[in-house]
Amino acid sequence: MAHGAITPPVGVEDVDGTRFRQVMGRFATGVVAITAVEPGTARPTGLAANSFTSVSLDPPLVAFCVAHTSTTWPRLRDAGRIRVNILGEPQLEVCRRLALKGGDKFDGIAWTRSPGGAPAIDGAIAWLECSVEQEHVAGDHVIVVARVHALDEDHDGHPLVFYRGAYGGIA
């Protein structure tokens, strides 16, 4: 055994993916839309994520996770500046659109270009404009650490929340 390795408790079995998802579903998360203008085009692109967190105050860093299978993430990464739009409770359809594979994800989504160039989704309750600082491979996802360059609150309202496999608000 390597120095510092942790020995699993006796009798602990491998964790089943379905059971892991079920138990982790008890942890409510907010939902964000990570957006950018695709390099070399004027087309907006984006993805929805519910694995978003603050990491550091000094320097200001946030993190989110993206599946290795994402075809959108490489286009976002190469954009230079990305925008994290914190979605409000009424924005479930925005989340669904950005979770789609392929096609025009922004069809039907109202947005404007932020001062930094990234798509600002109308109705988001807050936003952060960031650049990618680091990426860390972790299982079937990549943990992205991003430096915050600007941020603000846009609207009052309740966040869109993901809990027990469903979207909703705070009751």
From TrEMBL:
Q: Name one Pfam family in it.
A: Flavin_Reduct
For this chain, one GO molecular function annotation is: riboflavin reductase (NADPH) activity
Where do the Flavin reductase like domain residues begin and end? 24-169
Q: Which UniProt keywords apply?
A: Oxidoreductase
Highest taxon above the source species? Bacteria
Please give the family membership noted in the entry: Belongs to the non-flavoprotein flavin reductase family.
User: What PANTHER family does this protein map onto?
Assistant: FLAVIN REDUCTASE, FLAVIN-DEPENDENT MONOOXYGENASE, REDUCTASE SUBUNIT HSAB
Under which name does UniProt file this protein? Reductase
